[in-house]
Design a protein that fits this description.
Layout: H1 31-51, H2 64-80
Helix pairs in contact: 1-2
């Protein structure tokens, strides 16, 4: 019986290396100060509201002053998503 031919397998060649895209890093130095400022303004707004028994910062808003304070804090968290 004749001997069958042995097929030679191709040697392993690794895939070509992917070229990394140049990442453009912009200057985001403004993010941290703005974020902290918004946090502090929101905290100060709520503290002033409670310390003055609701007469400050804006008397006409009443308990909505708490929402305004938390709005500043939420805006600070929104700005924090830009921090790299």
């Amino acid at each position: 019986m004749p001997k069958s031919r042995i097929r030679k397998k191709a040697d392993y060649t690794p895939p070509p290396a992917k070229q990394t895209a140049a990442i453009k890093l912009t200057n985001r130095a403004w993010v941290a100060p703005v974020m902290l400022a918004l946090f502090l303004v929101g905290l100060a707004w709520i503290v002033v509201f409670y310390v003055t028994d609701g007469s400050l910062p804006i008397d006409a808003l009443g308990n909505w002053n708490i929402v305004v304070g938390f709005g500043f804090i939420a805006a600070g968290f929104g700005v924090s998503t830009q921090w790299k």
